[in-house]
Design brief:
- The chain is of the alpha/beta class.
- The chain has four domains: 35 residues; 71 residues, Winged helix-like DNA-binding domain superfamily/Winged helix DNA-binding domain (Arc Repressor Mutant, subunit A, Orthogonal Bundle); 242 residues, 3-Layer(aba) Sandwich (Aspartate Aminotransferase, domain 2), CATH 3.40.640; 193 residues, D-Maltodextrin-Binding Protein, domain 2.
- Helices cover 42% and strands 16% of the residues.
- An eight-stranded mixed beta sheet has the order 3-7-6-8-9-10-11-5, covered by helices on one side.
């Protein structure tokens, strides 16, 4: 009988104990697992790999140098051949080592200092309206085309994603619909178990566990929108890094806010002293920063700088919205600290998601909103009640195991290698003057091309070759990155990617030659001037009479546009001078003040009773003919209405004076008009003038500061001085 019990013990009890211990091991955090197993033989290969990596990064082995053979390394470390081979496999995955058949292991070229870093952007002038959605829509059609070589979209290749594991988790979670556990809306802030799993991976936050503070959102951008709406109103100014992420600009435009861009260093990020000066000079309502592996530059601010930044904003009571979506995609040994880590007052609204490191289609993000939590939670509830339960339960199940951490370690190695592969391919095919960023993590490379290459033209040419890129002009509302592009290294490098980069390099060189040819052969004989209103007002007949065309090879051409567009065309050397309404304090330009005009608010005769005795609030409630952000009328409207807390309704958008006048006569809405014209039309009964106020409107002639030695610029400046 005793033998039977003993046999039962061996067969049943011991396996249960072993399985229980195995289960406990699986539930440990990855740091614990590494620590436990690292004491044995199984993880000794990581110690060898880390040591060799340090030697390569320190320059003890240069690119192309042969590394110790398996036998030599076995003798030096006392480990087995299989352990040493695993170490080399790990280094190959990290992109530090390449294997040459029958020759051994060699150090690969590193990611850092391959080419010079891009130049830092110019100083911010003032806050500006954003008008980028139309151009962005055109680009998105290209970025979302699955048949194109995907250099443009910051996303991962399917081969790098744990699709099978997530599919299994979704199938398991779907049982909740069968048993009824997922039949309701779910908690507005999110599924508790998912909040708990996210909290486990946020141990760097100052208050430890944060599960009860987490609000689940529909992706990271949804969280950022909720935060922006919680801390700012239409017309408020939001501080951004420059260059910045396209979707931030789109969101600010949609929320009718203004952007103020402060240049970021491609290596170190924002200068805190410069930030302090900016806050002194401008009325900033909130900041939106991506300070860890910033998109598009890829920098990671030092921990000390992040702490100083948070302290600076906290002391001034200015909230920071932090997008930390790339924090798991680091190329070093340790995950960087977030801005939220240094937040003790609840002034950092932290946003993250699983879109960039796990599955884009999950559409699950999360927010730690600090002192603004209740407002964010209320806005989310009003907008969507709650997030769908299925994917929350599936993600929670997946995160409960250790598969996510294993996936991240493999993914980081892949991305580091792919970043190096793309960077070295750029060196092979792009012009010698090209500059590229040196990302410390994330998914994007910022590429500065020769100054005469237009990234929009490059985009269109690349699209015809079935290649997607993101033009740098979409990463700012200032027009200063027109010669830059953003590339994504989210896909493993192969022959197709290499050929695509070779084609892109060929297109860039063709544009470079074309622009040089155009500048030297065509534009030398043509003076191009930007006009922003009626030629009679601008004295164009006098200009034509005084430009010395008869006895020279020069021709004169006029380009009709609005003031903001004229400044952009000047900055890109497409105009030699231009007329601009409104203030222009940009140090890129030489501004000659000409005269001051006055504007009146005008409207349809059908609205005469509502307009004549109206106050600002009454005018704001009437329909308006909207104006593009590049038009100075738009800035005037903000100054008059948004600063008073009013938000006029735009019935239609127009940027042509004749079209605006037609719409006013047709009864569409109100607009601005030069006073002299308005009074003449009012006497004819064509429109109604609001008599209470008139608004100063300076007219200037503007040229590009860096083009002052150009004979065409000098010629047109002399004519303007003579007739004005």
């Amino acid at each position: 009988m005793m033998l039977c019990y003993f046999f039962l013990f061996l067969c049943i009890i011991i396996p249960q104990v072993v399985n229980r211990n195995r289960y406990r091991t699986e539930q440990k955090q990855p740091e614990q697992i590494l620590e436990d197993k690292g004491k044995g033989m199984e993880y000794q290969y990581l110690k060898i790999a880390n040591k060799l990596e340090q030697q390569i990064l320190a320059g003890e082995y240069l690119a192309g140098d042969k590394l110790p053979s398996l036998r030599k390394l076995r003798a030096a470390t006392g480990r087995s051949i299989s352990t040493v081979y695993q170490a080399y496999e790990e280094l190959e995955n990290r992109g530090l080592v390449e294997v040459r058949e029958k020759s051994g292991f060699f150090a690969r070229p590193l990611l850092n200092d391959i080419l010079s870093l891009p130049k830092k952007g110019v100083s911010p002038v003032k806050s500006h309206k954003v008008a980028i959605n139309v151009l962005s829509s055109m680009m998105q059609r290209s970025l979302n085309n699955p048949n194109r070589i995907p250099f443009g979209e910051a996303a991962l290749a399917n081969s790098l994603l744990p699709g099978k594991q997530m599919a299994a988790a979704v199938r398991s979670a779907a049982m909740g619909y069968q048993d009824g556990s997922h039949s309701g809306y779910g908690a507005p802030a999110g599924y508790k178990q998912l909040q708990k799993e996210i909290s486990k991976r946020s141990l760097d936050l100052p208050n430890g566990s944060c599960a009860s503070e987490i609000i689940i959102s529909q992706g990271c951008m949804s969280g950022i929108e909720l935060c922006l709406r919680s801390v700012a109103r239409p017309g408020d100014t939001i501080l951004l890094e420059s260059p910045t992420f396209l979707c931030y600009l789109q969101l600010i435009e949609d929320l009718n806010m203004q952007a103020l861009e402060i240049p970021a260093d491609p290596s170190t990020g924002l200068d805190v002293e410069r930030l302090e000066k900016t806050l002194d000079e401008h009325d900033i309502r909130a900041a939106l920063f991506n300070s860890t592996f910033q998109n598009p530059l890829g920098f990671d601010m030092a921990a000390e700088a992040k702490e100083e930044l948070v302290t600076l904003f906290t002391e001034r009571g200015i909230p920071i919205i932090e997008d930390n979506i790339y924090n798991n995609l680091y190329f070093g040994e340790l995950k960087p600290l977030s801005l939220k880590h240094f937040d003790n007052q609840g002034m950092v609204l932290y946003c993250n998601s699983f879109s960039k490191d796990l599955m884009p289609d999950l559409r699950i993000g999360w927010v730690l909103a600090g002192k603004y939590r209740e407002k964010v939670k209320r806005l989310k509830f009003n907008n969507s009640l709650a997030s769908p339960q299925l994917m929350q339960h599936a993600l929670a199940q997946y995160l409960e195991g250790s598969g996510y951490e294993r996936h991240l370690r493999k993914l980081r190695n892949s991305l580091r290698k792919q970043a190096a592969d793309m960077s070295h391919s750029i060196v092979r095919y792009f012009p010698a003057e090209t500059r590229i960023s040196s990302p410390k993590g994330g998914l994007t490379l910022w590429v500065e091309l020769p100054g005469n290459v237009d990234s929009l033209k490059l985009f269109r040419l690349a699209e015809k070759e079935n290649i997607s890129i993101l033009p740098g002009t979409l990463c700012s509302g200032t027009g200063q990155y027109d010669h830059c592009i953003r590339l994504c290294y989210g896909h493993p490098w192969n022959d197709r990617m290499e050929k695509g980069m070779a084609t892109l390099g060929r297109l860039i060189k063709s544009l470079e030659k074309t622009e040089v040819k155009n500048n030297s052969e065509v534009n030398t004989e043509e003076i191009v001037v930007g006009l922003n209103t009626d030629p009679e007002i601008l004295r164009i007949e006098d200009i034509i009479r005084n430009v010395p065309l008869q006895n020279s090879a020069s021709t004169l051409r006029f380009h009709q546009s609005i003031s903001g567009n004229i400044l952009k065309l000047l900055a890109s050397n497409e105009l030699h001078g231009g007329f601009v309404f409104g203030e222009c304090n940009d140090d890129r330009f030489v501004v000659r003040y000409l005269t001051t005009y006055y504007l009146k608010i005008v409207g349809p005769t059908q609205m005469a009773d509502k307009i004549k005795e109206a106050e600002y609030q009454d005018l704001a409630e009437l329909p308006w003919i909207g104006i593009p952000a590049e038009c100075p009328y738009c800035q005037l409207m903000e100054d008059l209405f948004f600063e008073r807390g009013f938000n006029p309704r735009q019935a239609i958008i127009a940027n042509d004076e004749a079209a605006i006048l037609t719409m006013i006569k047709a009864g569409v809405g109100l607009s601005f008009m030069l006073e002299d014209q308005a009074m003449i039309l009012a006497e004819k009964g064509s429109l109604v003038v609001w008599e209470q106020e008139r608004f100063t409107f300076p007219l200037s002639f503007v040229t590009l500061a860096s083009a002052q030695d150009d004979e065409r610029v000098q010629a047109i400046q002399k004519v303007i001085e003579k007739i004005w």
